[in-house]
Amino acid sequence: MLKGFTVPLTPQGDSTLNRNPPWHYSSDCLAVEYWAEPSAIAALLPPGLSADTASDGRAFFWFLDWQFTGSNDELTDPARYQYREAFVMVEALYEGQPVNYCPYIFVDNDAALARGWAQGYPKKLASVFQTRSFSAPSPAAAPLAPGSRFGGSLSAHGERLATARIQLEEAIPDPRTVFSRPSVMRRYFPNLTAGHWDKPAVDELTLSLTDNLTLVDLWAGSAELSIPEVRGEDMHAIAPIRVGRGYRFGMSYSVTDLKILRDNRKA
After folding, report:
1. Are strands 183-189 and 97-107 parallel, antiparallel or unpaired?
2. pTM for the model
């Protein structure tokens, strides 16, 4: 019997990019609130989602420094399973309920890329960096304190795709006052058979299910964000018209399941 959750499948199962869930994640996060052109966000939404006119084009740009493990002590193999990520979450509606939708996401690790595709995140490879915090006092330590500054950058194919900077001002006691919408994605796998290119093998709207989701040490402050126009990328269409607050916090959760909201091939 061939083993593995993602390809390649082998008799031993050691070559697979990912073993079966549960998958456990911990991260330091930067997120910048901003507003884009509402019509550009509406144009990105897949069947089953509609524009949230009350949000008026609101979105968040995220940078994350991840540590991952499954059930095989993967956290002691950081070369394979530690990674960084950047993505956009735009606000939308599913059957009238407020949700976030991920139209763009970038990652620097192939195992994370495969897990994302399985869930519906449209991941692409890129280089992602962000300021880290350290416990030993230093001008470089970036402690969680008023005045501390953090930066994040995203680049791919020699081009800078996004740059963010945050300066902390205050702690936020309840993270749910900022981050409360569930995340919806589109699982899309094309069909290469001639005559069926416009009939994907999989086209589903999915709901991210996170077990034991925890957000800690949420700080807020002023923020800057730029998403320049780059040849070969479309993300600049939802570049900031104005920028709100920036946030720095810790996050953890586990993944064991996924909910299919809609099969667009049948709808």
Report:
1. parallel
2. 0.97
Residues with pLDDT less than 50, the chain: none
Q: What is the DSSP letter of 55?
A: T
Structure tokens given for 220: 């807020």
pLDDT value at residue 44: 98
The domain locations on the chain are 23-263
The domain at 23-263 falls in which architecture?
Answer: Beta Barrel (2.40)
Give me the pLDDT at residue 7, please: 96
Are 48 and 267 in contact by the 8 Å Cβ rule? The answer is yes
Angstrom distances, CA of residue 245 to CA of 30, 125, 160, 166, 183:
11, 27, 22, 8, 20
Phi-psi region of 246 (alpha: psi -120 to 50; beta: other; left: phi over 0): beta
- Residues 121 and 87: their CA atoms lie apart, in Å, by 10
CA distance 212 to 253: 5
